[in-house]
Amino acid sequence: MTTIEMTSQEPGLLDVEVLVLAAFRTGPDGSTPTVLTEGVHCPGLDLEALAALLPTVGFDAALDEVVRLPAAVLPSGPRAGTVLVVGTGDQMARARATADNDVAALGATIPGVLRRAAGRAARALAGTGSAAFLLPAGDPQDLEAVAQGVMLGAYSWSARRPAPTAPLGRAVIVAGCEAQEAGRTALEGARVLGEATALVRDLVNEPPNRLPPATFAEQALAQARRAGLDAEVLDERALSAQGFGGILGVGQGSAHPPRLVRLEWAPPGAARHVAMIGKGITFDSGGLSLKPPASMPEMKSDMAGAATVLGAVLAAARLNLPVRVTAWLAMAENMPGGGAQRPSDIVTMYDGTTVEITNTDAEGRLVMADALARAVQEGPDAVVDVATLTGAQIVALGERVAGVMGTPALRDAVVQAAVAAGESFWAMPLPEDLRQGLDSPYAHRRNAATGKSIGGMLSAGLFLREFVGSTPWAHLDIAGPSYNDGSPWGLTPTGGTGAGVATLVELLRRQGA
Predict the structure, then answer these.
(1) Which of 210, 243, 282, 313 is the most exposed place for a label (fewest CB within 10 A)?
(2) Closest by CA position to 39, among listed 80, 96, 99
């Protein structure tokens, strides 16, 4: 993993291979690249020549555009061999203009723009030994954003074959002396977040034949022990004995039995208790309600919610956040084997609720509901669940924006944490008129509405709400943002993205404040 450090030394004197700067668009037509110097610690470095050169090499500072030039273009003659400039498009200007717009609400605040720019640069520097980042870092919030961007952008899945290009080896953030004290805390937080996010990405990228529920549980247990967490794993026998009918029903068609993992971070004196539940479907064929073939290849990522919750609780422990966290990872493989549950089956959930199965591909809410019902028995102050729950989330919000539903105050707190973390979450309602679609003539409710395809994301949220009682609750549907099956962008790689980890860590930080 990339090492990261901070210095107030003149950047031209640094022993690094690359100097990294950012540029944004200005001018009457918004196409003139301007090097970002405000808040940048760059004594002894004349950037005017660089700014004049950029248009001549076809660089117009478009979002995520990068150009790498010989450092000789700088008259001051830095020791670095090259200069890399990353474009921020018009996002910096829009973020500066007002915080009251959709761009800012979706995480593209000034720190959000810096986070993305640093991440894009770090991604472009794969195979490079060292680089100095000359981005605004005098403000602690900006410094933290740059550090996080570096760590999140410098990622590659090491198990890939052929082996990937090694990530950037050493990153140096150049900041003024006044930022040094706050910088140490920011750098440590960025390291922890980077490690947690890399773990999530690694798990999501792992092929399903190498990550069945039992193996996933073993890896979570090993990670928990290294972090000093209390941990418990319920196998299929324990799940049966304790009545987890939802988890067992989903897993009964697979040769790989389900698991429920409970992890706990309980620092002395913690005044708040947050429960987090993650969906861990290690592969989702849809069961007997079989998915079309084109929808299956990325279904190894259907455990991203559980991986995200695992990463967040590990980060809470490593950052010593003063909040008690119980994490529940509900793991199963949804397969159409001879023992698979059928449409029209009725299962009895952990809390005694009976559910008629109308769609075996609406399986995530079953494992989540069991874990939610169990989690709220411990009386948490708040409960947050994270799941790649519905394709309807992608229809409603696209592939880069997650939906969040639940108790309004907690739902909005998640959105605010996401803005601070530079992630894109959007508050969604839970319309009561959709609730009747979950009524069943044969059981307390059905797992999915029949006959209509409207409001699928919201109906799934309404189903989960039935299992939390009066506990403040938020449901995060990350179906789109959790997996990128296209080209990399910003600090986001192809494959598992780790979306949601930064938001959960920020939420836990605020809950413990």
Answers:
(1) 210
(2) 96
